[in-house]
Specification:
This protein is of the alpha+beta class. The protein starts with 8 loop residues before the first strand and ends in an 8-residue tail after the last strand.
């Protein structure tokens, strides 16, 4: 059966769109645990409460350099994709399993969240394209992702947040090197797409 593809609009998650981001990430039950996509950004592994995570993400959205992009269908926020300079993601900077490729100032796509009811409709792929466009608009030269190589197998939604190699390849990314990171035995790759002239060129 062919999966339905919907018309998706992708926009940077700026401060005036924070409540749309909250509609995607905020838990339905008050007091429930929620990631808020800050674990890669906070220095070390410091513990922060859910309200603190929300406030931290609000600050990033209002900072002038949104930390990712939002997907909309008919003006309804349906998805979130984190994309920002790798240098500002302390967990990646210090990672022993996802290596730094070289000294180019890469931007990193680290997370996809698609709301229930909108999955398998092309939202994640549209967000990846939008993330590349946003990174390019901010002067990025290289965009990276660290997806799973599912080799065509279906992926549990519990692990789908990092994306798949096939989706990144469809968006013009190429495999650079395997990582030593995996989920349920499924290998993750460093994948890259050149999106602008290298600052060392010429």
């Amino acid at each position: 059966m062919t999966e339905e593809r919907l018309s998706v609009t992708v926009c940077p998650a700026s401060g005036d769109r924070f409540e749309d981001l909250a509609a995607v990430l905020r838990p339905k039950r008050e007091g429930a645990s929620a990631c808020w996509c800050v674990s890669y950004r906070l220095p070390g592994r410091q513990a922060v409460s859910v309200p603190e995570r929300e406030a931290y993400m609000r600050g990033l959205c209002e900072s002038g350099q949104p930390p990712g992009v939002l997907a909309y269908i008919d003006d309804v926020p349906v998805g979130w994709c984190s994309v920002s300079p790798r240098a500002g993601l302390s967990r990646l900077v210090n990672s022993r399993t996802i290596p730094k490729v070289d000294d180019q100032p890469a931007w990193s796509v680290i997370c996809f969240v698609v709301r229930a009811g909108y999955r398998r409709k092309g939202v994640a792929g549209a967000m990846l394209d939008g993330a590349v466009d946003y990174a390019r608009s901010q002067g990025a030269h290289v965009v990276e992702g660290y997806p799973l190589d599912t080799q065509g197998a279906k992926l549990s939604t519990a692990f789908a947040y990092v994306g798949t190699v096939a989706m990144f390849e469809s968006a013009g990314f190429s495999r650079v090197m395997p990582t030593t990171s995996s989920h349920s035995g499924i290998l993750r790759w460093v994948m890259r797409r050149e999106v602008g002239e290298s600052p060392t060129a010429g």
